[in-house]
Structures are given as structure tokens and as C-alpha cells.
Amino acid sequence: MKFIEELQTRILIGEGAMGTLLYSNGIDHCYEELNVTNPNKIESIHRAYLDAGADILQSNTYGANYIKLKRYGLEDEVSRINRKGVQIAKKAAQGKAFVFGTIGATRGLRKSDLHIDEIKRIFREQLYSLLLEDPDGIILETYYDLEEMETVLSIVKHETNVPIIANLSLHENGYLQNGMHVSEALTRLESLGAEVVGLNCRLGPHHMIRSLEEIPLPKKAFLSVYPNASLPDYVDGRFVYEANPDYFGSSAMKLWEQGARIIGGCCGTTPEHIKAVKKAVGNKAPVNKKVTKLRKIEINDISGVFTKQPLHKKVKNQMTILVELDPPKKLGIDAFMKGAKALKEAGADSITLADNSLASPRISNTALATLLKEKEEINPLVHITCRDRNLIGLQSHLMGLHTLGLNEVLVVTGDPSKIGDFPGSTSVYDLSSFDLISLIKQFNEGLSYSGLPLGQKTNFHVAAAFNPNVRYLHKAVERMEKKITCGADSFLTQPIYSVQQIEEVYEATKHLETPIFIGIMPLTSSRNAEFIHHEVPGITLPENVRKAMSAAGEDRMKAHQEGIAIAKELVEAAMEMFNGIYLITPFLRYDMTVELTSHIHTKNNLQKVGERNI
Hints:
The chain is α/β, with parallel strands linked by helices. It has 2 domains: 267 residues, TIM Barrel (Alpha-Beta Barrel), CATH 3.20.20; 247 residues, TIM Barrel. Strands 1-10-7-6-5-4-3-2 form an 8-stranded parallel beta sheet. Helix 7 crosses helix 8, helix 10 packs parallel to helix 11 and helix 14 runs parallel beside helix 23. The radius of gyration is 30 Å and the shape is elongated. The termini are far apart.
């Protein structure tokens, strides 16, 4: 029997969850290793699904790739585990079912964790191992990242002629994690040559049905769907799926009505669930016509309510000064508000607020930014780290900032928790800085991470961090260019303490149109200078700067004057090449950044007078 010919005339029933049955039997280590250590166990599960009515068995190789097997010290067993997986499934099938080699996704939320070239290498090794055992086809499943799916699908089509089932996983009804609607994604997979396209995992029957309602029947390919048994519950440290087989069977009828040609089960499904599916749709003729439910997307563009010129546009035409004023580590904000007011009066264009800098808890920068906006009419630049919030919290935070009218943000990775006051706390990092920049730009299109409409378009202007204090400056510039591709509107540098380094940064970045604010933080004492030089990673103070601060001794006034003098020299050098200056206030010593702000305006005015006289 030929797979495609069978699909043209009848509904095929897929297998259920291998992992669910192994988990229910108390097995919680590497499932794929059982192909070689306990093949009889795997064969018995395949047979249970076969007896329940499955027409397609999948090799127990979902995670049998180099990177996942390496977690168990099995990275050298990729070929053997994959080949055994197909052999076991074939033995169980006894010619009564098709056997597909299974390859699962490797990418999670953070695309930057695994480069696409590494994915290709890992994938090819697994694919070649499966193909050595001559499976009836290849099933690609649980792919959240469309780039990864399109990449590996193209590899399979190049290497073999066997049928391919390409199943994506959704974050929300009808949408991939990149915001694309599933109908568009499946059309792209069909154009790449997948014989079957569809969905699996993440969602239960109810949400799978709703998603399929918005998917037209493919023109050439067939539609597959492998829902979870239900949404999981967490009971006594274990995930439990409560959906009963009868409900799953009745849901299969609705999936069939939406044009599914292959209906199987993912997490939480058992042979009883597959038996219910077989009973419900096993004798049904395929659906060849359907009415697709139209999507309704309502997004309001309210960007016009933000009237102030964005900082990244302002700096292209005139000298612009940002001043960082860290939120206090203790309750009480009188000194902070006094400093912010003084900086505004001195001519600072914006106050920037760090997000728990050095991984130590401070008063919420959102709260202080709101007060600055309301009481001082300052449009602050709010820092957002990837460290403290998961993907849910980040999206909620962005919606909150938008609601408060705070639309200038700086995206930073964030110092790891282990360097702060609570080294045992968790650093989240669901997203990298690249991912977060892209997410914010997607919010500006009115779409959440999972592609659902937000109801409004946000109007965020995104600054990004640039650290020039590295051994190879060109590598840091390459990171800048990548952030620009993700949507960065401007850059703030880490503090620089050398005129020569400012010149080097200019030469390395003069090809970029995206504006750069040069970071300058005045030194407060010799002890401060030595700490930065010896203990802050990546920053080296010139010898003459350290000697100058040392010569000032313990006298606070002399140290202040020397720190200001050094900073003024750096500011003046930066002003020759850049329109943006980013002053970093040390230890809430806003008197220093007030003085520097006034100095910048004085020098800038003198320069303008000189230009007019010329």
C-alpha cells in the first residue's frame, strides 16, 4: 500500500503519545535510549497503538539528536538509537501500518541559543540515520520556529523522495510564535514540497478545532492534526491530562469536518484515545470542501497621541543629552526627584532609568518614570532587562509601559543574578536582547509574541546597548548590526574613559546611520577608579586617568574636580564626532552630571557661534 494513495481515499489514524505511556510507568529519563536498552517496552507501546487502530506508527526518536542526547552522555549513539527506533516500529507494525521516522524540533523560545547552521548539522545526522532503515516517510513535529521547520524540510526534500508530514506547534489559536498566521505558514510548507502539513502538541482538541477553522484546505498537500489530550494540570509534581477518550473521539469528528486527513494524538493521549478516534472517523470519507472562518483583526493606530520627537530622531539633527539616574535601593525618592529636576533644568533631554542595575533590587523604574512624566514633564527612557521577567511578564510589562505613555525604552540583557545582592535568585532570560527588540517592534505592529492582535499598535522607540570595551571591536559592531536588523533605533554605549577609544568607536561605526550616544561616567575617587579598572569586566582605565585620580587623594572636593575634568575632556572629544552624549550618574551624585550637562550646552553654543562667524 502507498501512503499518498491511501490518503486520497480515506482518513488515516496517527499514533498517540509514546512519552505519556512511558511517563505513566515511572520512566522519566531519556525515552529514546530505551530503543537500545529496553526495545521490548517500546515495541509493546507501538503494538498497543496499532491494536487501537493506528495506521501510522512513529519511531521513538523525537529527541534523538546530538544536542539532546548529549545531556545524557549519549551523543555518540545518535545513529544507533535512530536506526533501532525505526527497526522497532517496523517490527511492531508487521506490515499493517506505515512507519515514519520522527524528528523533533531543537529550538525553543530563544532563536539565538542555536544557530541555524548548527541545526542543519544536527538534523542531517539524525535524518541520515533514519533513512538507512528505509522508513515509509519522515514526520517533523513540534516545530515552533518556522525558520527551523523550513530549513529542515528543505533538507529532507533534497535528500529523499519519501513522504513528509510537517507539523507546526502554535502558541495561540491560529498563530505561530513569530506572529504569522498558521494558514500562511502551512502554505509555505506546502510550497516547499511537504506532502502533509499540519499541527501538533501545545493545544488540546478545542483550540486545535478553532485553529483549523481558519485554515483553508491545502491545494496539493493533505492536512494533519495531533492535538494534546487537553490542557495539562499540575498535580503532586506531575503533569496530568484529564480529557477522556470519548471527548477526544467526538473532537476527532470536528477535526475531520475541518478537512483533517490524518488525526492522531500528542501529549496525554493513550491507546484508548486513539481507539476513540478510529471509532469516530475511521470509516469516514475525506472532506474535500470546507468554508473557512474569516479572521477579524482590529488594531487601532494611536501613535499620533505621542507628540514629542523621538530621541533617536532628535539626535540626528542636534546635540542630545541623556542622563542615567539610578532608582534608589532604599525607599524614599526625595533626592532622586530633586536630582531629576536639576538635570532637566540644566538641559538634559531625557532621564534614563536602569532596571535593577547590577542585579540588585531598586525602586521600580516604571514607577519613577511615571512620576517623572507626570510631575516634571520629563519623557524618560526606561531600561528593560531580559533577566527578571519571563515571556509572559515581559509582554505584560510592555503593555503597561504603553498604557502609561512611556514609549522610550532601552533593551539590555541584564547582569546575571549571581553578581547581585541575591546570587541564589533565578535569572530568567527567556528572550535574548535581540529577541526582545524584535518583540517590541512586533508590538508596534499591534501583535503579541504569539501573533494575536493587541487591539492597538504601540509606539515604542527602542534603544539598544553597545559595549565597545571588548578585545575585538569589530565583533561588537557586528552585534550592533544584528540589533539594527532586529529593529534598534539607537545605541547607548558602556562608559568610555579614553579619547583614543572614542575615536576608534567613531571609525568602527561611521558607516552606520543608526545614532550612537557615547557613555561617559565621571569618576568620584581613586578608589572608584581602581575598582572600575580592576573589577568591572571589560573596562580598562588609561594609566594617566588612574594617576590623576590618585593624585587627588582622599580630598572629596579635589577628587570631584579631577573626575569632572577628565569627563569634560571625554565629552568634548565625543562632541566632535557624535551628537549623542549619555551621562551616567555615579552613586546618585547628580551634581556631577548637572555640571557636565551644562558644560555640554556651553560648548555646543560656543561651537554654533563659531560656525556662524565662519
